[in-house]
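F.,

This is the one I mentioned.
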């Protein structure tokens, strides 16, 4: 019926808006943590590729909105996008830490979502991704995951206090086992930071899309790619 179709469309719009806003606010450091605007501009021109905001009354990423005062392009991935003004209210160091944490989890989640569709470990049954969550809850596996995650959150909280005090870069746990940003590659650190934040934002939106397309079509990602099924109520749609 038409009412169901409108409800589905409204749901998609709400989900997309929430996903964008969720990763939009933590794009820049607070005063006292970051270099000055002039210094950040100089660093941008000498250190490599960045998405940066230039001086002006309006935001470069959203030209019809005012430029947020705390977004000066000094952090990788800062494009001056903060339509709800979160960076004016909350500590942006904490917001950036949260964005990186959720983005890293989302990247792992996207990878796991795809792998479990293509491969099943021996002695395990193949189950749909959403059903796998419910199965873990019933079997107690989810409780174990939450328990160990709680221990990690304790250490993360300690690190966060160092970030708030300005003694640690947001999201930096000095984890680089392959040495990708050390030695002769040290000058590429900023490039890798930009790549990480861009992939983090994409993964957060992608995982939400994975889940909701399964709720609607009951198809996995690979099945959807090979045998596209349109949203119920739109049988005339062809791609």
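My design for it:
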């Amino acid at each position: 019926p038409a009412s169901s179709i409108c409800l589905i469309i409204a749901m998609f719009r709400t989900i997309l808006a929430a996903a964008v806003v969720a990763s939009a606010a933590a794009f820049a450091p607070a005063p006292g943590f970051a270099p000055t605007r002039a210094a950040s501009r100089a660093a941008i021109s000498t250190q490599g590729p960045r998405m940066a905001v230039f001086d002006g009354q309006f935001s470069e990423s959203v030209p019809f909105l005012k430029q947020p005062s705390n977004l000066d392009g000094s952090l990788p991935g800062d494009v001056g996008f903060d339509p709800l003004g979160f960076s004016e209210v909350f500590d942006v160091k904490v917001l950036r830490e949260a964005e990186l944490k959720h983005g890293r989890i989302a990247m792992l989640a996207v990878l796991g979502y795809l792998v479990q569709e293509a491969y099943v470990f021996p002695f395990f049954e193949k189950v749909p991704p959403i059903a796998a969550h419910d199965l873990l809850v019933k079997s107690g596996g989810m409780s174990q995951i939450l328990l160990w995650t709680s221990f990690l959150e304790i250490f993360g909280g300690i690190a966060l206090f160092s970030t708030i005090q300005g003694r640690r870069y947001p999201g930096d746990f000095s984890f680089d086992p392959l040495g990708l940003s050390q030695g002769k590659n040290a000058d590429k650190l900023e490039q890798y930071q930009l790549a990480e934040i861009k992939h983090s934002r994409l993964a957060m939106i992608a995982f939400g899309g994975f889940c909701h397309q399964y709720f609607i079509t009951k198809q996995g990602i690979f099945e959807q790619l090979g045998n596209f099924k349109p949203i119920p109520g739109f049988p005339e749609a062809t791609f």
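Confidence is low (pLDDT under 50) at residues 1-9, 19-54.

Talk soon.
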